[in-house]
Specification:
One of its GO terms (cellular component) is cytoplasm. This protein is α+β, with helices and mostly antiparallel strands and 461 residues long. The chain contains 14 helices and 16 strands. The structure holds 4-amino-1,4-dioxobutan-2-aminium adenosine-5'-monophosphate and magnesium ion (MG).
């Protein structure tokens, strides 16, 4: 079977030739002696128009086919210079590969994203989700390409872990204990020494701590995989299972970290603009009207940089408009992030040097004794897309901080070791992959950029 993509890419070679294609019927209509099928095979964003005539034996049967039917069409590809599509197939035959019931949920009318979420197994057959998931695939590839071209080693960090990287206690526990009959210690706690791993374990919230170990061997590494957070926040930007890309560089500081993040984002923007032009035009026309202009501006200008302290000064003047009022020491909420990036700077910004109390234990402490070398990258439409930092590379300072925040030291011996055996200054960040896809496509709900979303109260399909 010829792919529809091939017909579009090599149309000169196929014009006036016989071709056979397979695909699913997007729409079908007929008059007395002929009919039209809009056929999509998933290999190309644009569909193929099929014209069929009553000289076909099964004309009457074909006229009655339902949307969603899988068919094999053989016919001649002819140019249609006056029509919307550049060419169509004049069919000699239309064979049914698999019929579709009349109750097929994806009829020609536009369906709301909310409705399509309830049929996440069928939504990849729609225009919007064809575009989203092709861009998602290309973006994953572009990220690998970016880091591989720069010599970064891809490390597969584990998903089951005994540590809590972000220290936020938002972990999904992994256990084989029988919950009806759970073993207890003498003090009455759950006895995890009886569990599969002989201790309490969870799904990872971040691969960073393991990636750091490899950065201290390979210098530049990245990990890219699923991460899990039991955050009880039902927002359009939080998922319980999401993908994160995390580079880590030895002999690098916060400036290097920001340079890498900016180059990476610009690279993936350029990559999808170049490799998914049909999809990107579709988003620009039907999902987010200013998308292409905005992305073109991003690649041709520099990201802005401010410190947390400067950000708070800007935000405090506008406290009236915010639901959550800010002052030095408060964490930034989405409304603050979006105000800064959408209204003050109107482009992506890096906010650096946050108070240590609102950031993770591993961040390098600044000389002021109050802040750490953290950086968040905020983008219009979303807010935080990247969170990163220079890491604390001094053994004693790290240990002291771990004790201050009450961590179980014995679980982090490996992490302290890295500061004992040839410690280097090092830095890295985490890119929320779904947030990156939202940014690239203009889609406004994280549930619509991950194939089978897992969010509070939803683990369907
Ligand atoms: O800022 P976060 O929590 O940083 C870390 O996990 C670091 N260990 C990363 C590192 O330095 N290696 O998360 C990084 C990014 C956020 O900026 C956000 O884009 C995304 O991950 N993210 C989520 N995306 C979807 N759903 C959630 N619940 C998310 N939580 C974080
Ligand atoms: Mg963060």
């Amino acid at each position: 079977l010829t792919e529809i993509r091939d017909l579009y890419e090599n149309r000169e070679a196929y014009l006036d030739q016989k071709v056979t294609v397979g695909g699913w019927i997007r729409s079908i209509r007929d008059s007395k002696t002929f009919g039209f099928i809009v056929l999509n095979d998933g290999t190309f964003f644009e569909p193929l128009q099929v014209v069929y005539h009553d000289k076909m034996d099964n004309f009457a049967q074909v006229c009655k086919l339902n949307v969603g039917t899988a068919v094999i069409v053989t016919g001649t590809l002819v140019a249609t210079p006056q029509a919307k599509q550049p060419f169509e197939i004049q069919a000699d035959s239309v064979e049914v590969e698999g019929a579709s019931s009349p109750d097929y949920p994806l009829q020609k009318k536009r369906h709301s994203f909310e409705y399509l979420r309830t049929i996440s197994h069928l939504r990849p057959r729609t225009n919007t989700f064809q575009a989203v998931f092709r861009v998602r695939s290309l973006t994953a590839y572009a990220l690998h390409k970016f880091f591989q071209e720069r010599g970064f080693v891809y490390v597969h960090t584990p998903l089951i872990t005994g540590s809590d990287c972000e220290g936020a206690g938002e972990m999904f526990r992994v256990t084989t204990l029988d919950m009806e009959n759970v073993p207890k210690t003498e003090e009455g706690h759950v006895d995890y020494s009886k569990d599969f791993f002989g201790k309490e374990t969870s799904l990872t919230v971040s691969g960073q701590l393991n990636a750091e170990a490899y950065a201290q061997a390979f210098r530049n590494v990245y990990t890219f995989g699923p991460t899990f957070r039991a955050e009880n926040s039902n927002t359009t930007r939080h998922a319980a299972e999401f993908w994160m890309l995390e580079p880590e560089m030895a002999f690098a500081d916060l400036e290097d970290d920001m340079m890498l993040a900016e180059a990476m984002l610009k690279y993936v923007i350029n990559y999808v603009l170049e490799h998914a032009p049909e999809e990107m035009n579709f988003f620009n026309s039907f999902v987010d009207k200013g998308l292409l202009d905005r992305l073109h501006n991003v690649v041709s200008s520099e990201f802005a940089k401010i410190t947390y302290t400067e950000a708070i000064e800007l935000l405090e003047k506008e406290n009236d408009r915010f639901e959550y009022k800010v002052s030095w020491g408060t964490d930034l909420q989405t409304e603050h992030e979006r105000y800064l990036t959408e209204e003050v700077f109107k482009r992506p910004i890096f906010v650096t040097d946050y108070p240590k109390e609102i950031k993770a234990f591993y961040m390098k402490q600044n000389d002021d004794g109050k802040t750490v070398a953290a950086v968040d990258c905020l983008v219009p439409g979303i807010g935080e897309i990247i969170g990163g930092s220079q890491r604390e590379d001094d053994h004693d300072k790290l240990l002291a901080r771990m004790r201050e925040v009450g961590m179980k030291e014995e679980e982090y011996g490996f992490y302290l070791d890295l500061r004992k055996y040839g410690s280097t200054r090092h830095a890295g960040f985490g890119l929320g992959f779904e947030r990156c896809i939202m940014y690239l496509t203009g889609m406004s709900n994280i549930r619509d950029v991950i194939p089978f979303p897992r969010t509070v109260n939803n683990c369907d399909l």
